[in-house]
Amino acid sequence: MSTDTTQILTAIWRQVLAVAAVSPDDDFFDLGGDSFRATQLAVLVGERLGVAASPSLAFDRPSLAGQVRWVEAARR
User: Which of 14, 21, 37, 59 is the most interior residue, by most CB within 10 Å?
Assistant: First the structure.
């Protein structure tokens, strides 16, 4: 996994979920995520990582590591 992608996505999670720390195995919904925050996540992933994401990203891949892998595949 790309360190840059992980760092950017971690920062997005921290912002959207208002949490101090996030680890790769954390679950978006266990940290307080909901459908509104999933929409925010999708918008910020598009803005900061340059890939078109939908709110289903959080539902289909709730772990940070899973989302990082998806973003990196989408960027290729």
Answer: 37
Which CATH number, 1.10.1200.10, 2.60.40.10, 3.40.630.10, 3.40.50.2020, labels domain 3-75? 1.10.1200.10
Domain ranges of the chain: 3-75
Question: pTM for the full model?
Answer: 0.93
pLDDT, one tens digit per residue, over 14-44 is 999 999 999 999 999 999 999 999 999 999 9
Q: Which residues pair with 42 in a beta bridge?
A: none
What is the C-alpha to C-alpha distance for residues 57 and 67, in angstroms, rounded to an integer?
7
> Which amino acid is located at 56 in the chain?
S
User: What is the SS3 assignment for 9?
Assistant: helix
